[in-house]
Amino acid sequence: MSTTPETPRKRGLSTLPGLRRFAPPTPITADVIDAEGDEFLPWAAPGSRLRVNDRAAAAGFYAPSEAGAPSSTRQAAVLNTALIAQPTGTDGLVIGRDGLSQTAAAHDPSTAYNAKPRRITSPNVVCMGDVGGGKSSNTKCNYVARPLTLINRRVVVFDKKEENGEGEYSPMARAYNSEPIRFAPDGSGSRINPLDKNIIRGTGARGQARIIRNIVQLADDNKPVDKWGREAIRIALRRTFAQFEDRRRTATLADVLPHLGDLADTDGMGLSPSARDRLHQAGKSVLFTLHDLLDEYGGMFDGETSRDVDLAAKLTSFDISGLNEDSAAVPVVMSIGYQWLLGRLKSETGTFTNVIYEEGWHMVAGPSVRLLQSSQKLSRALGISNVFVMHKGTDIPVDSVGMAMLQEAQTIHVYRQSHAKDAQWCQKYFSFAPETAEAIMNLEQGEQIFKYASNPEIRLRHLRSEWEVGLTNTDTGMSAGN
Fold first, then answer.
1. Does 252 lie in the same domain as 327?
2. CATH of residue 173
3. pLDDT in tens, 98-133
4. Does residue 80 belong to any structural domain of this protein?
5. 120 burial class (0-12, 13-18, 19+ CB within 10 angstroms)?
6. Are 289 and 220 in contact (CB under 8 A)?
7. pLDDT value at position 129?
8. Statement: the pTM of the whole predicted model exceeds 0.85
């Protein structure tokens, strides 16, 4: 078989001298069949020769017009690969629109964690960005309103941001027939008992002692409790629980105080006089610290847990917006509330729960993070996704437990970071591409960089329905994409 086709002869009016310039160019011959004569080589086939004459180009005869082959939209889609599939797949909840392909992006920690095979190994979420970028609206839509349209879903929020004299999630809680659980420094609000039976059920005696140590550290300007203080706390708790074993009333923090520094039953420990004195002093030091805490916030922690502290509704809001930003009460309520939640969920299995920490740095930048880390295995078993909403990560020490917690999260939403160091922090510790740092600094309101597991990050715009706009708008919420 010949590999060089014959050159076709020009016919018709194009052979006349004055009309030759309008004739189509002569095709270029090429070998389009391989040496063995049994395979067509498309890359070797000739293309159309373009006209190079300026006058011909100006007259519209720059290139010959050739009829294309008939096709369908589905077949032609391969020419634009960005439209072939969604960047995140179709499972889960719609979370926004991909900026490149303009297709819907979908994700849900519960769906991804329970997929076979699992798409993520940690259901925890980080939502980070400047004030006004859109992270609050993203959280309210994608981790509250939309999940609650599904069965067997629950949301618990630690609501730190004040709006109109109450927490910003209060209107949403009422929309789901739930009154916010309000904590007030003057004792006029709700109360949560650090020795609540639900906490014992969730953590055991060892975990209970860890909670008291955490409270003492937070109340003592973040000064860690030494080994003598830890032993004094264990002794006091052991006595308190023994004292209330047969009583109807649950022991409270005030019931622990008389046993701190009391060495009446430590004779069998073989302590020297100096060791006994040191243990006594450590117990009294803890006692004084707790005295100060109860003196300032006694109405919040001194007594049995209020009856309104419950999980009866699909959305439970712990309103801590009235507490001083720099006080120990904020992380204390968060840590005690989380441990109480673990105990409650042990008896209410079968529901996946999003736990949202507004101003989440309280939980990852202080001693509370160790409580959180120690209970991660249990929280996954109970179906909990911790959602940390925060401004920036540069305040968290690189070698801290909090940094490990953030890096363990496998669902990441990053909104605009105005400062280069904050954007570069996100790029580095969330394993974004190098050029993403600049993109983070230039995100518009409502835009985010989204990533889950080891998949490449994508640029999303968060869109809301009219119903969601009315439900999630705040004074710093986004207005874009409505």
1. no
2. 3.40.50.300
3. 988 888 899 999 999 999 999 999 999 999 999 989
4. no
5. buried
6. yes
7. 95
8. no
